[in-house]
Design brief:
heterodimer, A: f41 fragment of flagellin, N-terminal domain, two-stranded antiparallel sheet, 6 helices, 69% helix, rod-shaped, B: alpha+beta, 2 domains, four-stranded antiparallel sheet, 11 strands
Amino acid sequence: MRITAHRMLELAGQAAGKAQSDVADLAAQVSSGKLVERPSDDPTAWAHARRLELRKTVSEGQGGGLALGRDQLRETERALGTIGGIMAEAKQLAIQAANGTLSALDRDSMQEVVNGLFGVARSAANTQTSSGEYLLAGAQGDKAPFDAAGVYVGDGAARSLETAEGSFGVATLPGTALTAAAGVDVLPALARFAAALGANDLIGIRTAIDELSTGHDQVSKARATVGSMMVVFDDADAARGGLEDTLQARIAALTEIDIVSAASALAQRTRALEAAQAVNGKLAELLRPR
Amino acid sequence: MADLLSLLDLGAAGLAAQHNGVAVAGNNTANVNTEGYSRQRIAFHAGLAAPLVGGVTTSSPRRVDSELLAGRERLASAALGRSGARAPALLDLEAGLVEGGPSIDEHLADLWAGLQRVSAMPSDSLVRDAAIATAKALTDAMRQRADAVARSRSEADARIRNGSDQATTLAKEIADINRAIRISDDPVQRDRRDVAAGKLAELVGGEGRIDADGQMRWVLPDGGVLVDGDHAARLVTSPDAATGFSKVELVDGSRRRDVTATLDGGSVGGDLAFRDVDSAQTASQLDQLAFDLTSSLNAVHRGGAGLDGVVGRDLFVPQAVVAGAASRIAVDPAMLADSTRLATAAPGSGTGDNQFAIKLLAVRDQRVAGGGAKTLGEAAIDIIGDVGRSAADAKAAGVRDAEVGNHLAGLRDSLSGVDLDEELAKMVHFQHASEAMTRFLSTVDSMLGDLLTRL
C-alpha cells in the first residue's frame, strides 16, 4: 500500500496522542484511587456498587435509629434502677417498722422518709427524654404517665424499631410493667406503706412488706426485660457493623484501583509514550526534504 | 520523411509536455498540505508516427481518486458525526445527574435514615425537623436534575438548529460547485466539492452520489433530495408546538417535508437522537420516579396522624400527572413550616406511637417504582446507570467510527495523497526529459543552421 510521508507523520502523531491520552487517563485513576467514578467508566460495576452503597447507607440509618433507641433504653434502665433501689430500701424500712418496739413517733419519722422515697420514685417513673417525651408512658409520651398518687395513666403500647432489614425489636417499656398488670401498683404500694406508717397501722405495715417485696421483684424483672431489649439492639448493631464492613469491601473491589498493578501499568504506558515520541522525532528527521 | 522544421515542432511539443509534467508535479507539491486535495496526473500520449515522428501531447490534469472510496468516507463521516455528537452529550447529561452534590439515590437514603430516627423518637422536634429537611433536600435534588436534563435538551436543540443552518450553507455550496463543474470540469472544484460533501455528511448523513453527468446529488435517509445538480433545498428549523423543541424540515420551494424523525446521520442526527430519545427517556424516568415517590409516600402518610392527631395530610405536594413531575416535586409547604404535621402515629394513638413512621420507612423496600418492578432507590440508580451505559456505548461507537474513518482516510491518502518524494522524483524525470528535448532542439537548430549556411 502506498503510504505518503504526510500519512506516516499523521499516524505517528495519532499514536503519540493516544499514548499520551492513555497515560493521562491512568494517572488520573491512580491519583484518585478510583477505577470507576462515573457510570460510563463501567456501567455494570457502577450500578452494582451503587446498590451495595444504598444497602450500606440504609444499614447506617438503622444504626442511627438503634443508637437513639439504645439511649432511651439506657435511660429507662436507669429510672428502673432508681425505683428498684427505692423499693429495696422501702422494704427494709417496712421490716423495721413492723417491729413492735417502735413508737408512733418513730413511725411518723419513717413516714417522712418514705414520702421522700415516693417522690423520687415517681420522678424516676416520669423520666423524660431530652426532647420531653415520657419514657414509660407507652404511646402517650406527651403526658406524665404517673399521677400525683402514683397511679399509671399512660397506655400499654410499646414502640418497635427496625434492627435489620425486615427485623424489628421492641424499643420501649410501657409503665404497665409497674402496675398490677405485672404484679402490684408499685408507686401506690409505696404510698400505702407511707399511709400505714402515718396511721401507725401495724397490719398495714406488714401487708406493705409483701407488696414492696413483690414490687421490688417486679421492678427487677422490668429491668431484666429492658436489659434483654438492649442485648437485642447490641447484637443487631454488631451484625450491622459486620454487614457494613462486608459491603464496603465489596464496593471497594468494584470501584477502587489496585495501586500496585496500576503503578505497573502506568510505567508501561509511560514507556510506550516515550517510544511513540521517539518514533515521531525520528520520522520527522527522516522525512525532511533534502 | 521528417523535415527539419517539423522536427522543431516535435521538439517544442516535447518540451511543452515535459513542462506540463513539471507544472503538475509542482502543483501537487504546492498543495501537499491542502485539505481535501487529490494529487493530479497528466497522461502523455504519443503522436501517430507520420512519417517517423509523431511527438507527444498531454491531456488535461486528472485527479487520482475513487468515488467509491469517497462515498465510503462520507458514510464513515456520517457515523462519526453521529457518535461524536451523541457521546459528549450523554457524558454531559451523566455529569449533570451525578455531579453537583449527592445524587437522588443518596438523598433517598438520607430520607430513609431521617425516617429511621423519627421512628426511634417520634415526638422529638429536632429529629422531625431533620427528617423534613431530608425530604426537602431530595425534592430540591430531583428538580435540579430535571433542570439539568432540560438544559441538555435545550443545548442539543440549539446545536440542531445551528447544524441545520450549516447544512443548508454546505448544500448551496455543493450546488454552486456543481454549476461551475458543468461549465468547466476543474479537478480543484471536484476537490472542493468532496470537502463540502464530507462536511455535509458529518453534519446530516445521507448519501451523496456523482451521476454520469458529473453532478453530485445528495439524498437524505427518507429519500428527500437536498442537492440536485445546481439546485439546493434547505434544512429549516422551526418550533414544534407539540414538543417545545425544533423540528427540522426539508424545504424546496413550496414543498416542506418534516425530516426530524428520519434524520439519523451526522452530528444533527446524533443530537436529534440525544434530544428525542436518550434525554427524553431520562426526563420521562425522572418524572415517573418523582410521581411514584410522591404517590407512594403520600398514600401512606394520609393514613397516619401528626402530633396533633390530625390525619389525611400529604407529605409532598400531590402530582396529578407524570409529565413534568420531577420539575414540580416539592414537600408540602405546611409540612415544611411545621414538622409536627409529619404523620408518625396511628390515628387515635398517642404522640409516642411510631407505627406510621415505620410504615413510611417500609416504602423504602416496596417495589413502587419502575411499574412495580423496582424500589425507589433502585429506580433512581437505574436512571443514572442507563445514561452511563448509553454514554459508554456511544463512546465505544465513537472510537470504532474514528478507527473506521481513520482507516478509510489512510486508503484515500494512499490513493490520492501527495508524496513529496514521489513528486520530486517525477520532477527529476521531467527535468531530464526537458534537458533532453532542449538538446534535441539545439541539435535540430544546429542542423538547420548548417543547411542554411551551405545553401
